[in-house]
């Protein structure tokens, strides 16, 4: 059911835009809630074709942008403002990739050039989105920027390797830029730490299926779905959360605050 929470608002949805992704579901929800949006992804990722299907459903233009390129991000904001006839109200940063994880590198055998790419793509790109928006004055006052994070920024998960450092940096940038942008333009900046989610990116991590089941048994509410994460993003884009900023918000069914569950204890007794 749509409530018109984003009626009259405009925004940019960036990230992996395939049917399993959170960004895809956020785009659909934003459209349902009355927003006008622009879709963006790296040019190489857009060749898969799924983004065109989403663009048609959401009546949204597609503007290619490499999230590590300031020039591309400038072009994204400028063309978005030209399309909307003004500034945007919200931005979703759903961007993350680790060459070390993709190529199966253990944490004690990282390729440092790839590590720098992980940080650039997954964390520095968030700063680039924010800094470029500030310089272009591309976000309306009381606008909202949300980045998708993961609890490996606070806790150790062996399979997450260098992405843990990238997510920790992402959350730090949200706090630092959240203060700056809040003082300058009342723009709020937050991250969401989502449950392990059955997306293309998540399921590509070794051991993901076992951890997904473990987290589901630990969290009293179970794992949060990509669909429910999209709902949460919409609330952060809306005026209902105007005073929420510089936060890393856990959307994980209670996993972060649960030491052990009865379900897991029962498994250990077998």
Structure description:
The protein is of the alpha/beta class. Helix content is 46%, strand content 15%. It is built from ten helices and six strands. It has helices at residues 22-32, 50-58, 70-84, 99-102, 112-136, 161-185, 200-203, 208-218, 226-237, 262-269, and strands spanning 10-15, 36-40, 88-94, 139-149, 188-194, 248-251. A six-stranded parallel sheet has the order 2-1-3-4-5-6, with helices on both faces. Helix 6 (161-185) links the parallel strand 4 and strand 5 (188-194). Helix 3 packs parallel to helix 5 (112-136) and helix 5 (112-136) packs parallel to helix 6 (161-185). The chain is globular and about 65 Å long. 43% of the residues are buried.
Topology of this structure?
Layout: E1 10-15, H1 22-32, E2 36-40, H2 50-58, H3 70-84, E3 88-94, H4 99-102, H5 112-136, E4 139-149, H6 161-185, E5 188-194, H7 200-203, H8 208-218, H9 226-237, E6 248-251, H10 262-269
Helix pairs in contact: 1-9, 3-5, 5-6
Q: Beta-strand level of the residues, as a percent range?
A: 5-15%
> How would you write the strand order of the largest sheet?
2-1-3-4-5-6
Q: Tally the beta strands.
A: 6
- List low-confidence stretches: none
Helix content: 40-55%
Radius of gyration: 18 Å
Number of helices: 10
- Summarize the biggest pleated sheet: 6 strands, parallel
Q: Which of globular, elongated, flat, extended, rod-shaped describes the shape?
A: globular
SSE run: EHEHHEHHEHEHHHEH
State the end-to-end distance: 44 Å
Q: Which structural class do the helices and strands define?
A: alpha/beta
